[in-house]
Each structure stands twice: as structure tokens, then as C-alpha cells.
Amino acid sequence: MIFFGGDIIKTMKKYKLNHSFTIIKIILVLAVAGLFFLMAFLAVSTLGRFQRDTARKNNARNLLAAIIQFKNNNGGKVSFNENNDAWAKLKLY
């Protein structure tokens, strides 16, 4: 279509689309993005906590296994006092 004179301006005003962002839309987008970042941060920190708990449980199991092995190697005795050399036997280095 070819428009002449004022017809072009009237047609452009009639079909003009409003593509501008309002401050409310920007705030909503930032709020949603903030919630996503918060959820990701909490998930990562929770994952780290579970990894540390698993490491602690493994350390406790290893310590228990070492005590049981020490007990078996020393005739069923696990006495740590000043009169015997049990600490020297338990020392790994």
C-alpha cells in the first residue's frame, strides 16, 4: 500500500505497538531472576553440607575400623594409660 500525505501518520499511529518496558516489568524480571539465583545458591550449599557429612561418617567408620584392628592385634585389650606403650603402637608415623 502506498499512502500519501497524512494517511501514513494516521496508519502508523493506528498500528503502533507498545514495546517499551515499564519499571514494574523490570522489577518483576529482576525478582524472578533473584529467586532463581537464591535457589541455585541454596542447592549448592546444601550439596556441600551433604558432602561434608558423608566425609565425617567415612572418617568415623575408618576410626572405628582402626580401633577394632588395634584391639584384635593386642589380644582384645584397648587400654590407654601411662603405664603401657599403646599410644606408640597406635601412632602411624
**Compute the gyration radius: what is it?**
37 Å
Mean pLDDT: 77
- Record field, number of beta strands: 0
The total of helices stands at 3
> Helix proportion of residues, in percent?
55-70%
Q: Write down the oligomeric state.
A: single chain
Distance between the termini: 92 Å
Broad shape? rod-shaped
- Low-confidence parts, pLDDT < 50 over ≥5 residues? none
Largest sheet: none
**Structural class of the secondary elements?**
mainly alpha
What is the H/E string? HHH
Strand content: under 5%
Structure description:
The chain has 93 residues and is mainly alpha-helical. Helices cover 69% and strands 0% of the residues. The longest helix is centred in the middle third of the chain and has 51 residues, at 23-73. The protein is rod-shaped, with a radius of gyration of 37 Å. The protein starts with 6 loop residues before the first helix and ends with a helix. The mean pLDDT is 77.
